[in-house]
Amino acid sequence: MTTPIATGRRQHLISFERRTVSSRSADGTPVYTWITLADQWAEVVGVRGDETGFGGQMVAESTHKVTFPYTADLTTEDRVRYCSRLFGIQYLEDRDLAGVEYVALVKELVDE
After folding, report:
1. Quick check: helix, strand or coil at residue 24?
2. What are the pLDDT digits (tens) for 79-111?
């Protein structure tokens, strides 16, 4: 049985956000907004380019690894907000396959 990461290492308060259609423009084009799904304490660690191999897969251009308690319904279509910075989720892994802890590789977003 895997023991979850010690709470003391989860020093960063992050938010998970999901893009939703908030309205439609006059011509019917969807207008999107981001809503907060959950706030979690997490461990956020920068990674080098050669550390992007994860679970036997290579994830291009990941800039950080985020470890946090399992959060239901989270997908790679969602994003992470940490302070004023935004990160797209590149890869998610249920670390122990028991729904206790997730590890995500994320890429910092610019001009979002």
Report:
1. strand
2. 999 999 999 999 999 888 888 899 999 999 986
